[in-house]
Design goal:
Keywords: Signal. By secondary structure, this protein is mostly beta strands. The chain is built from 3 helices and 13 strands; from the N terminus they run E-H-E-E-E-E-E-E-E-H-E-E-H-E-E-E.
Length: about 200
């Protein structure tokens, strides 16, 4: 099945990119031309939940939620690359949900979460949860952090499970934080999972 996804850039991605370059040594406008208007993607099973723009490499990254992959799309050439992750992509119950650009490192962060929590409206909070840091220059994973140890500690401390890590943010010290959407509001400092 093909999903055609259309995005309207009414405010223009150049404005978004200008805002996203805080902390970079090179201003966005030295690298990426402005873009206005609408564009559409025709990519197999693309069903994005989140997206982020890399203003240094001029690529738009979208989650392909149901096949647990990421699509890197060049808005200026219309070329795209599907990023896959061993043991995650095309592996149930994973959903690729979160996508975020780290303005401090230039890396992308992705969250792969068990779709069971969303498919059962919170009734089944089991399944794997991972955070990936992606090197946008080398186009490879820097790390894939398994959130299971944190989930076990949380359940032990509070008596119930937590799941649905889908949104992510970073700070200027290189730490990433994953927020989960099911059971309780929790922010997880994911670098602790890979040390």
């Amino acid at each position: 099945m093909y999903w055609t996804t259309a995005f309207s850039a009414a405010l223009s991605l150049s404005a978004v990119a200008d805002a996203a370059t805080v902390g970079h040594l090179r201003p966005r406008h030295e690298r990426c031309p402005s873009i206005n208007g609408s564009f559409s993607f025709d990519i197999f099973q693309l069903y994005p939940e989140n997206s982020a723009f890399d203003p240094v490499r001029c690529k738009f990254y979208l989650s392909s939620i149901y096949n647990a992959s990421i699509v890197g799309f060049d808005l200026f050439t219309a070329d795209h690359q599907v990023l896959t992750f061993p043991g995650i992509t095309h592996t149930k119950p994973y959903h690729m949900a979160g996508v975020d650009y780290d303005v401090h490192s230039g890396a992308m962060f992705f969250t792969a979460t068990s779709g069971l929590a969303f498919e059962t409206n919170g009734g089944d909070l089991s399944g794997p949860q991972k955070v990936t840091k992606w090197d946008t220059t080398a186009m490879e994973a820097v790390y894939i952090a398994d959130l299971a140890p944190f989930q076990e500690q949380y359940e032990s401390a509070f008596g119930h499970v937590t799941a649905g890590f889908q949104d992510i943010a970073e700070d200027s010290n290189g730490n990433s934080y994953a927020q989960q959407a099911m059971a309780a509001i929790v922010l997880l400092k994911s670098l602790l999972m890979v040390r």
